[in-house]
# Entry
Amino acid sequence: MREYLRIEFDRADRTYRVGETVAGKVLVGSPRGDQCKVVRLKRFWRTHGKGNVDKGEPTVTRLHTGPLSTDRLHQFEFEFPAPARPFTYHGRFLNVDQYVEVHVDLPWTRDPRRLEEYVLLPGRPSAPAPSLLEHRENPVEDLVPGCSAAIGSIALVVGLIAFASVGAMGLLFLLAAGFFFLPYFKTLAKKRLGRASAFLTSLVVDPGGEAEVEVRVFPGKTTRMNLAVLELQAREVCVAGTGSNRRTHSHEIFKGAASLSGPGTLEGGKSRLFKGSVRIPKDAPVSFKGGANKILWEAKVKLDVPNWPDWVKKIPLVVWPGEDLLPGAEDLETLPPSPKEPIVLEPEPEPQP
# Structure
């Protein structure tokens, strides 16, 4: 008989949720079957797209050990619990897929292999990968364009004048002075607003939920403020190549914003609290972190003070399903187990020429 190797899932759409059982069968037929050592089934996840490939540790199962009859089509059934993560994702620069691969081990020849993907969706609640929770409480404060952009433009003009009057050495001196002054310049916004803090009420949010932020400021003296705003962004970040050939591809998946406060006055010596939230779409992609590929969610709080550098705090968050999306999954426990013994079938008739 001719070489034949096929993987069939028990669902036509190959779609499974966490908490369900992935099941199917492997069909094997080979004129060299009498030389077979073992038939293995391997399952794993893998990325593909613009970035370097990330791949999960494979789980290998032996479906059969020993020779196979060369005049029969052999069937081996398989089943395993749907993995907890990562979920199937197809984006612009990044794709994450779950795979099943069958491998027939034959000596002194190229082994037949077959690779098929299936779709994994959220179901029973599962914990995010530990890598997603690393450094999640490490917010970053910085300055953003605002008053700082205006000051930067003035500095550029001054630099050009300096270059015309004192030459390259004078410009170099001014740049060096600016480099040492920059750390002090970045503290101006903090000094103007006094004690300021911002935090998310929850650092792990469900798709369809809200990223809620609380901002508290305690200015030392009365200060005008143009606005306070919360921005929420999700991005694909994919790194390709290494060393001097390293390239980073980034694509914005989602961006939302909410006003925390309009123009007003912050009274000196009194604490002010601002609250707001941005809703995450129900179908939003969840957070993902591989070695070279990521789906990152980040909240950014911005306080715009007239004629002063903007105060900004960036807070990473994790978007992960916490809701039970698998009604009736408890019935899976009562399903009869699949037969474990191989079933021998007659070979499919070959098409007539």
User: Anything to note?
Assistant: The longest strand covers residues 247-261. Helices lie at 147-186, 188-193.
